[in-house]
């Protein structure tokens, strides 16, 4: 077992403070799926963001590390365990639909709180105190699903990429404001534990995009905030440059909305 560095020891103390008494139920559980092939280092970076929380609430952190050879688990699993983070190691996630949401479920089942905060490993959280406190308050007020604005980091500097991001945000505004379809996404939302497990069990949310419409279809209370101090950043590292890519994206987006308009039930929104 490798010894922790001074920086890692400091992070461990910060995470212990964040968790509080491990025998008591936390105010919320933070569940993060981690693809061992490309997100292990990102997960550590996200933990440093989370450790910056300085509010009065307490939170547990659960990492669901997946996608690695059964006989060769990543050494980072041991390091994260030393940090005091709850770890679930699953070499291969059995799933039908989207693997990301399936990877969240084991962590959600383990969670000690009924309030589940969900992020992706490659996210950045600029203001964890305001964000986490907002989530806890919303659920104390009877919320079933809550989410805030998601922006991008690590974007290529090309103008075509900036244009695509503009179209992306405009599209989400259109869905949320005009179509009244919740636009919660995997990189940043919170939901009641039993609710998401029930929806998953009943095959209502095989894809992440189906979470918002499914909660709305059963009359759940949904809260959204676009406040700047509640923004979460997700990685834009996979965005490709070029105007041809943008045109292809526009055509795909238009076709998606045509399919949406043909749907008789908003709870049956097709996966993007």
What does this structure look like?
This protein is of the alpha/beta class. The chain has one domain (6-150, 182-227): Spore Coat Polysaccharide Biosynthesis Protein SpsA, Chain A, CATH 3.90.550. The protein has 9 helices and 9 strands. The strands form 2 sheets. The chain has a 7-stranded mixed sheet, with helices on both faces. The chain has a two-stranded parallel sheet with strand order 6-9. Helix 2 (40-50) links the parallel strand 1 and strand 2. Helix 6 packs parallel to helix 9. The longest helix is centred in the middle third of the chain and has 20 residues, at 159-178. It is globular and about 55 Å long.
Provide the CATH architecture: Alpha-Beta Complex
Beginning-to-end CA distance, first to last residue? 43 Å
Low-pLDDT residue spans: none
> What is the N-to-C order of secondary-structure elements (H for helix, E for strand)?
HEHEHEHEHEEHEHHEEH
Most strands sheet: 7 strands, mixed
Beta-strand share of residues: 15-25%
User: Total domains, how many?
Assistant: 1
| Overall helicity | 40-55%
CATH class: Alpha Beta
Shape: globular
Radius of gyration in whole Å, from Cα?
Answer: 19 Å
Mean pLDDT across every amino acid position: 88
Topology:
Layout: H1 6-19, E1 28-35, H2 40-50, E2 59-66, H3 76-82, E3 86-90, H4 99-110, E4 115-119, H5 128-140, E5 145-148, E6 150-153, H6 159-178, E7 188-192, H7 193-201, H8 211-217, E8 222-225, E9 232-235, H9 243-262
Parallel strand pairs: 1-2, 1-4, 2-3, 5-8, 6-9
Antiparallel strand pairs: 4-7, 5-7
Helix pairs in contact: 6-9
